[in-house]
Each structure stands twice: as C-alpha cells, then as structure tokens.
Amino acid sequence: MAARTGDELYDWKRAALIVGAALAPDVDLLFRFVDGRNHHNNETHSIGAAILAGALAAVVLRALHFARAGALAFATSVSWTTHVVLDYLNRDTNPPIGLMALWPLSADHYKVPWPIFLDIGRKLDGETLVRNLVAAAWEGVLLVPLLWAALRYRSLRLTGE
Length: 161
Ligand SMILES: [Zn+2]
Known about the structure:
By secondary structure, the protein is mostly helical. It has helices spanning 6-23, 32-35, 47-63, 69-88, 126-159. It has two domains: 6-121, no CATH class; 123-161, no CATH class. It starts with 5 loop residues before the first helix and ends with a helix. The site of zinc ion (ZN) has 5 residues, from helix 4.
C-alpha cells in the first residue's frame, strides 16, 4: 500500500466538508426529540442557511490556513443548496408542507407543484422503512446517472481526453 500524500489527506478533508454540508440541513430532524414537534424543512432548508454555512466555512478554513479557502467555502454553500433543491423536488406529506427555502427573507414554505421524488416517511415502523427504501431506490435511479456523468466529465477533464 502506498503512503498517503498530503494532497490525498487534503482531498479527504475537502470531500468530508462537502458531503457534510450536503447532509447538514437534516440536523433539524433531531429537534423532534427536544419537543416532539416536526421541525424538518424549516430554517436549515433555506438559501439563507446555505449562505451562513459558506460564511462559517470561510472563517474556519481561513483560520486553519486551507489553500483556496474561498473556493471551498463557496462549494460548501453550493453543496448545502443541493440538499435544499433536492428536498424541494420531494413529494411532501409531513406538515409543515414544503421548505422554508427563502429564510430569512420569508418564513413561507414552498413546495414544487410537480414532485419527482417520493415522500419520505418519518416513522420507525416496517411499512415506513419499506416505503423509504423504495423512495431511496427511485432517487438512485434518477441521480446515479447524473453522478456517473459528472465523474466521467471530471475524468475526461483530468486526463485531457
Ligand atoms: Zn432535508
């Protein structure tokens, strides 16, 4: 096994930040354990939260002297925004319906009129688990080809073919 280089370690940290930013909006699911109410799709599912995440990343990355901290902070905001956009495309049957997408400019919830992803259940029973597995499989059917195309495009750019 080859020794890891500094660049590989840097890429691992960068990838972890981007993936973490894409997953972070769902931290609001944990708030249910505080008061029993559904907080999903509120402030964390907004463009404002994505901008705040990027700003926070910029401050922390600059303090840690990361190379290209500004670009990585911008990527953090974009990654956070992909979560908001993908959740916006969900069928939503869990009140509050829709996303607080324009927070802090608006506290209204917005919902796509033609959802392409299936509803995700929030219960911990077998029926909901099966329904969520079907929803995840459908998301894979739609998104894996996009991921493949992105990786192929990157590979072609890196090799110059
Ligand atoms: Zn979400």
